[in-house]
């Protein structure tokens, strides 16, 4: 196999260069002479993460698709710390990215299974209040394009940036309690009744009926005379006020045609 470099990183003071090679080795080089100083052995798959410590020139972090996270002393060519990202019942999770905090006391990693791993000094109590599974209910909703090629949410027929803030749900689509919904930007000061999402029932491909967060009423539901969403009412009211202001501005301005495109208005 012809070796190929997959990642390269300079250490904090630029005296060393570390390269990750597709034979799973890390190599430490003298940046002035080009001399190979150390081979760092430990990874069992390709490495695509190399991060230098923000102020300690000896420290380099590496992580790869084998689920291993290493902290190295590159001046000595030795391992300082090692973590293996084993996920119960699913094998290991490949590590896709890692970053140090500015003070160098913590680092965070993300893996192939959607986990955020936080390492560092101190206690983990501040993070324990957060549920294990957090998704927005709109994460996997399909999108469509209108006649002007603008993107719309398929269910609500609204532009994504005009939709109200999404709800937090678990992996099965079940909404979290209201204290977690307030963590979503835009919902910090909402009344409790605005933090309880609407639920609907849909049939899966195998015929099973499951409960899912709807969040907003669809056009079909409005036509059927169902009770409208409070959030949808707020959105429509804001849009109506904006349209009225725009109409007033246009009446007072010149009636000459304007060039350029704008976002289409929708009631």
CA-to-CA gap between the ends? 62 Å
Q: What is the overall silhouette?
A: elongated
State the name of the first-level CATH class of the largest domain. Answer: Mainly Beta
Structural category is alpha+beta
Number of continuous helical runs: 4
Quick description:
This protein is an alpha+beta fold.
Question: How would you describe this structure to a colleague?
Answer:
This protein has 267 residues and is α+β, with helices and mostly antiparallel strands. It has two domains: 5-122, YVTN repeat-like/Quinoprotein amine dehydrogenase (Methylamine Dehydrogenase, Chain H); 135-216, no CATH class. The chain has four helices and 19 strands. The strands form seven sheets. A four-stranded antiparallel β-sheet has the order 1-2-3-4, with no helix packed on it. It has a four-stranded antiparallel β-sheet with strand order 5-6-7-8, with no helix packed on it. The chain has a three-stranded antiparallel β-sheet with strand order 11-12-13, with no helix packed on it. The longest helix has 23 residues, at 230-252. The termini are far apart. 19% of the residues are buried. The model is unreliable at 216-229 and 259-267 (pLDDT under 50). Residues 240-267 are annotated as: Disordered.
């Amino acid at each position: 196999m012809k070796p190929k470099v997959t990642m390269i990183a300079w250490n904090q003071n630029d005296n060393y260069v570390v390269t990750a090679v597709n034979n799973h080795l890390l190599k430490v080089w003298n940046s002035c002479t080009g001399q190979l100083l150390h081979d760092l052995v430990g990874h069992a798959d390709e490495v695509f993460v190399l991060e230098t410590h923000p102020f300690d020139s000896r420290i380099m972090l590496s992580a790869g698709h084998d689920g291993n996270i290493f902290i190295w002393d590159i001046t000595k060519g030795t391992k300082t710390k090692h973590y293996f990202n084993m996920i119960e019942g699913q094998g290991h999770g490949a590590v896709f990215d890692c970053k140090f905090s500015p003070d160098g006391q913590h680092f965070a990693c993300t893996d192939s299974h959607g986990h955020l791993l936080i390492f560092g000094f101190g206690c983990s109590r501040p993070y324990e209040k957060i549920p294990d599974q957090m998704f927005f209910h709109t994460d996997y909703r399909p999108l469509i394009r209108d006649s002007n090629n603008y993107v719309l949410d398929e269910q609500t027929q609204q532009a994504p940036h005009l939709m109200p803030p999404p709800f937090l749900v678990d992996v099965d689509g079940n909404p979290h309690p209201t204290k977690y919904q307030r963590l979503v930007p835009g919902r910090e000061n909402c009344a409790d009744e605005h933090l309880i999402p609407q639920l609907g029932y849909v049939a899966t491909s195998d015929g099973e009926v499951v409960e899912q967060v709807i969040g907003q009423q669809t056009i079909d539901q409005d036509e059927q005379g169902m009770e409208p969403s409070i959030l949808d009412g707020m959105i429509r009211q804001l849009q109506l006020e904006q349209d009225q202001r725009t109409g007033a501005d246009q009446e007072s301005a010149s009636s000459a045609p304007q060039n350029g495109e704008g976002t289409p208005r929708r009631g």
